[in-house]
């Protein structure tokens, strides 16, 4: 059973027990871009009761269904090539499909409800900016970084990459992850925690449901890269060097 202590990092908690992600999300504890912070540090930053949060997470970890948990964190035991393939097949595929739908949906909702809810102008702009950032980001990963990782995984000595170390594109990806995280946080603030107003139609409600799903998926996506994949790759390159 997972032992939850104040010294656990947020990233390690979610890697060991992915079901804890929703509990951290609910308390606005950033386990993806802020995954290297300890639970004590994160709770202090958010002015949360540390003992209460530790108890909640420990209870949730104990209650997690063993079979479901084992399946949901299968990715944590993958090697670097398998993890890259998993991220592309799971998170990239989801974003390539979902972001065009979301931009069309938010435009439609803003057209209908924008007069009564002027914040939808900012919501739409934020969704469009997020898509404009994420799609080139995924192209760079799929065409540059991930092929480098696959080459590195099969090499017997450190390859000579055009950009030098694989750590250079990884640093770029991390910075872009931070920006995407900031946009998600802005979306949450603009939408009052993705809470649809009382006069929301079905499309309006679907938009906020989809944004909630997007936030959860992107947080887990970034966690897998920042806190699992990238350290593995950097360690592999260091050993080959």
Overall shape: it is: globular
Which stretches are poorly predicted, pLDDT < 50 over at least 5 residues? none
Which percent band covers the strand fraction? under 5%
Radius of gyration: 19 Å
Q: Strand tally, please?
A: 0
H and E order = HHHHHHHHH
Mean pLDDT: 92
Number of domains: 2
Describe this structure in words.
The protein has 241 residues and is mainly alpha-helical. The protein has 2 domains: 10-72, no CATH class; 78-240, no CATH class. It is built from 9 helices and no strands. The protein has helices at residues 10-16, 20-26, 39-46, 50-63, 66-72, 80-113, 119-154, 167-190, 202-240. α1 packs across α9 and α6 (80-113) packs antiparallel against α7 (119-154). The longest helix has 39 residues, at 202-240. The protein starts with 9 loop residues before the first helix and ends with a helix.
Helix-strand blueprint:
Layout: H1 10-16, H2 20-26, H3 39-46, H4 50-63, H5 66-72, H6 80-113, H7 119-154, H8 167-190, H9 202-240
Helix pairs in contact: 1-9, 6-7, 6-9, 7-8, 8-9
Put the structure in a nutshell.
By secondary structure, the protein is an all-alpha fold. Helices cover 73% and strands 0% of the residues. The chain has two domains: 63 residues, no CATH class; 163 residues, no CATH class.
